[in-house]
Amino acid sequence: MAKTTHIAVIPSPGFSHLVPIIEFSKRLIHLHPDFQVHCIIPSLGSPSSTSISYLQTLPSNINPIFLPPVPHNNMPQENNNHTGFQIQRTVTLSLPHIREELESLMSSRSNNKLAALIVDVFAMEVLDIASELNILSHVYCPLSAMTLSLYFYIPKLGEIVSCDFRDLQDPIEIPGCVPVHGRDLPDSLQDRSSEVYKQFLGRSRRIGFADGVLVNSFTELEAQTIKALEEEAKEKQKKPRIYPVGPILHSGSAGDENRTGCVNWLNKQQPRSVLYVSFGSGGTLSQEQLNELAFGLELSGERFLWVVRPPSNNPSAAYLDNSNEQNPLDFLPEGFLERTKEKGFVIPSWAPQIQILSHSSTGGFLSHCGWNSVLESVQKGVPLMAWPLFAEQRINAVLLTDGMKVALRPKGDESGIVGREEIAELVKSLMKGEEGKEIRKRMSVLRNASADALKEDGSSTETLLQLALQWKNLGGEI
Ligand code: UDP
């Protein structure tokens, strides 16, 4: 009988932190079926219905282990608005249960060894337990290599700069990366006296102790950055090795599209004529911004497919708590739906994104620049309009606009609102203008490169093979 290698993976709470590490696990067992993955799942409140239905489709060699949910009222009030804080805090409060599960996996007769532990970036506190239990530990970074570089660079930047990074005049030069203004760094780095800044520094210190970091990017997409990371790892013996294994994405669930009817609508549109508008699994606009976007789309005269959420002044309002039952369509400007019914299709809260991006009628994507959405757009070759909201999305927007040059980014006014005229201009430019054409060409090159990275002899497949062999050789076999 073939020997089985056991590994454990630990996502952090939230659909888009669960999916990447599970999709990584699926890819691993697809290429190397002699692996068994134990997925230990912390959650804030009960896992969302989207997460539950996603987990119901797992193959038998991925074993989900649900931890007791952390109640929402265990979150300190003062940082209740900060998604990253809540995610990491949930993991901290779940640590005793995680330890129990790991010990139980280690001691059960059939799993006398775990070959490796792989944790999400927000679950890095588990690395301390891994080290005590003597398990090889890796971090799965579902982010760009540029954001990963920031993790390594931030302690150094903190030493050379005394002010808040957002007050720096010149852009920051992270090794191997496109320069980025301090104001475009993640929210958690904006105020150096804050608790979330301290949390970021803690993660950044911890990542240095991992045995390796798997990053959901690929050599051809972020060549300079990955090279700089690899060189640094070689120079400093203690730095973890970097493994670009992406793009690893979920394939979308069949049948989803019938619920909204949007694919039927796309079937009736001209090739590449529709702008898809979505702010990810939880991105939320203020009422004022929602109005401007609605009028901007209308003014552009272009076709659009828009996933609308009820407004909030907290841009990540729906990220961990999608219990808002208000009808998002009630918040659209009066008469908007009627006036745009020939040109637009509006979906409340959630859309089958992969199917939409794969559809030949989709010609552009106005995105909040979550890294999964970015990779999905790259994989399908869809030009982007970059509209970052929170977390590390502004860094992704800089990478897409200044680095890869595959996106247009609105500037907005002093108060951060993007006005209808600017929206309309950019949408037209992306969908019909010369700039849009150039962007499309560059996106096609990236799309081909992303397909190549996943071929049998592709860069990311080779990297995963190295890892799998390492884990098999190190133990966990029965
Ligand atoms: N997604 C989707 N339908 C939606 C919104 C999001 O299928 O209406 C999926 C999307 O395809 C992506 C993930 O949810 O895989 C969002 O991840 P991303 O990193 O882009 O953003 P986040 O949700 O973390 O802000």
What's this entry about, in short?
The chain has 478 residues and is an alpha/beta fold. It is built from 17 helices and 13 strands.
What does this structure look like?
There is one protein chain. 42% of the residues lie in helices and 13% in strands. The protein is an alpha/beta fold and 478 residues long. The strands form two sheets. Strands 3-2-1-4-5-6-7 form a seven-stranded parallel β-sheet, sandwiched between helices. The radius of gyration is 22 Å and the shape is globular. The mean pLDDT is 92. It binds uridine-5'-diphosphate. Residues 16, 278, 280-283, 307, 350-351, 353-354, 370-373, 376 line the site of uridine-5'-diphosphate. It holds the Pfam family UDPGT. Its EC number is 2.4.1.-.
Give me some keywords for this one.
478 residues; alpha/beta; seven-stranded parallel sheet; six-stranded parallel sheet; globular; binds uridine-5'-diphosphate
SSE diagram, text form:
Blueprint (H helix, E strand, L loop, with lengths): L4 E6 L4 H17 L3 E7 L7 H7 L6 E5 L16 H25 L8 E5 L5 H7 L4 E5 L3 H16 L34 H13 L4 E4 L7 H13 L5 E4 L11 H5 L1 H6 L6 E5 L8 H14 L2 E6 L27 H4 L4 E5 L4 H6 L3 E6 L3 H10 L3 E3 L6 H11 L3 E2 L11 H13 L1 H20 L5 H16 L4
Parallel strand pairs: 1-2, 1-4, 2-3, 4-5, 5-6, 6-7, 8-9, 8-11, 9-10, 11-12, 12-13
Helix pairs in contact: 5-6, 10-15, 13-16, 15-16
The site of uridine-5'-diphosphate (UDP) has 16 residues, from helix 12 and helix 13.
GO molecular function: UDP-glycosyltransferase activity
Organism: Acacia crassicarpa (northern wattle)
Keywords: Glycosyltransferase, Transferase
